[in-house]
Structure to design on (431 residues):
């Protein structure tokens, strides 16, 4: 069977840099950090006392108070981003076949804040009153519920589920959405990811693994991918949503088209519970799989938004993988880690970083990797590569690749590309 082509027609985001995509992108291009002291709980006794939090978020902008109380913070982020993206796509939902519109929306952890609240509440009363839990405890916590909320809000009856692969979750969601559409199983799929893990158990759990930066004296400079002094990632929160649409369907309704999804890849390190393979084995495989799926060569890629978490092991292995996959062309690439600004959005990272790739294609500008200081060089990293340190760079981007790697050795990769044929296709469609 002939595979259908898939395009992106809507974007929405809520991040530590802004409650909309335009606000976020402005912060990204200007090299702004979203990090600051944790405000959502008392972190004074934690090894890490800062994070990249969403600022000024009002749940009542998403839904009324009664309904908002039934949602974890991560779901509220997801619904907010989805509303932005669906509005941006400008579909006439009264005319659309909603049986052909699905929602595949990811979260790596789900409602961990709800889990904390309910379990801490139980601990206080278990010896006196006994177990007493909110009837919405489970529906608020489970990681598929954001997809459910979005489908219920709009009446979308197509494929509906969540993908969970730790920090690769939302790239896997995009990949699944892409595949369902190109196989003809849906016309439109609302996809992306959301995470809200800035909580006692979220921060404490990652602290116990020594995964988080502890640079409490300077949160804004704590995330410093590819620098010798990096000491762990900075936790972020938020959501990003993309509207993926079968190309002919998008053209028939005169949709604005941002880019085409060219291909996706997946792989497993099969190596370690949390650490990436030191030689980048899974990273090499996932990028090669994505290029093969897209029917592209390494030379077709202009920009890589790397996983780049600012951890001692992960940054090195990803650089090794890029050099091996891209060969000499690696030195022609722009490479950047936007986690230096947003922090690590965990299960939502892939969606927001794919979105930054799309914006780079549309605006002809590469977001920077901030917080690198002269001389702060790791001898195991090749600085002849262009890491786009500290300042955005203008260049044409024909195609961009986004890497995401998760605990458990899960790797996922998405390639987006500029569409040159849209005008011709529109004319063809009208004829």
């Amino acid at each position: 069977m002939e595979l259908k082509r898939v395009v992106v027609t809507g974007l929405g985001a809520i991040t530590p840099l802004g409650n909309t995509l335009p606000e976020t992108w402005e912060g990204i291009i200007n090299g702004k950090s979203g990090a600051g002291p944790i405000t959502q709980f008392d972190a004074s006794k934690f090894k890490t006392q800062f994070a990249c939090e969403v600022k000024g978020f009002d749940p009542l902008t998403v839904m009324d108070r009664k309904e908002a109380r039934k949602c974890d913070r991560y779901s509220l982020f997801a619904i907010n981003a989805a509303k932005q993206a669906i509005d941006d796509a400008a579909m006439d939902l009264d005319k659309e076949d909603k049986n052909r519109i699905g929602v595949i929306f990811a979260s790596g952890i789900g409602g961990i804040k709800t889990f904390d609240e309910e379990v801490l509440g139980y601990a206080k009363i278990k010896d006196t009153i006994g177990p007493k839990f909110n009837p919405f405890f489970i529906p608020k916590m489970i990681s598929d519920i954001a997809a459910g909320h979005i489908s219920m809000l709009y009446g979308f009856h197509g494929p509906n589920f969540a993908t969970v692969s730790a920090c690769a979750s939302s790239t896997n969601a995009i990949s699944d959405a892409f595949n369902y559409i190109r196989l003809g199983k849906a016309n439109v799929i609302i996809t992306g990811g959301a995470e809200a893990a800035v909580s006692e158990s979220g921060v404490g759990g990652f602290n116990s693994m020594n995964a988080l930066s502890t640079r409490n004296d300077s949160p804004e400079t704590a995330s410093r991918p590819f620098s010798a002094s990096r000491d762990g990632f900075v936790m972020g929160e938020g959501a990003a949503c993309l509207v993926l649409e079968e190309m002919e369907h998008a053209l028939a309704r005169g949709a604005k088209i941002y880019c085409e999804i060219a291909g996706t890849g997946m792989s497993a390190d099969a190596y370690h519970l949390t650490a990436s393979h030191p030689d980048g084995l899974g990273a090499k495989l996932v990028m090669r799989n994505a290029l093969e799926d897209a029917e592209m060569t390494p030379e077709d890629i202009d920009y890589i938004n790397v996983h780049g978490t600012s951890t001692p092991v992960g940054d090195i292995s990803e650089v090794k993988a890029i050099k091996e996959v891209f060969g000499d062309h690696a030195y022609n690439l722009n490479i950047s880690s936007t986690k230096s600004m947003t922090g690590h959005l965990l299960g939502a990272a892939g969606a927001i970083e794919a979105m930054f790739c799309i914006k780079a294609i549309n605006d002809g500008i590469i977001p920077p990797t901030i917080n690198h200081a002269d001389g702060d060089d790791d001898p195991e990293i090749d600085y002849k590569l262009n890491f786009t340190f500290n300042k955005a760079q203008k260049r044409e981007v024909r195609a961009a690749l986004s890497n995401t790697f998760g605990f458990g050795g899960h790797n996922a990769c998405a390639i987006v590309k500029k569409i040159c044929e849209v005008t011709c296709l529109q004319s063809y469609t009208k004829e």
